[in-house]
Write a structure and sequence with these properties.
The longest helix is centred in the middle third of the chain and has 7 residues. This protein starts with 6 loop residues before the first strand and ends in a 9-residue tail after the last strand. Strands 1, 2, 3, 4 and 5 form a five-stranded mixed beta sheet that branches. 8% of the residues lie in helices and 26% in strands. The protein has a domain of 52 residues. It has 86 residues and is mainly β. It has one helix and five strands.
Amino acid sequence: MGIRLISGRDFTELDSQNAPGVIVINETMARRYWPDEDPLGKRIKIGDLNSDNPWLTVVLSRTAPLPGSERWMKFFMTRWDHGGSR
């Protein structure tokens, strides 16, 4: 993805349509939701908790911020985890 990783892993070919959902988050989002914890392995749901959106497991966090983006929460999902298809 071209982002410098600080902890965790990037997406792999194992993160397929039939695999459990995963999410990559940045440092700002990690500090917001897990301020004094390691967010790796934590679960998060994007959108309304009552929605059909899947629960996702954090597999990467604490990406080095891009200049000027430190204040914005950012996350990345596979296309399978937000309704994409082959």
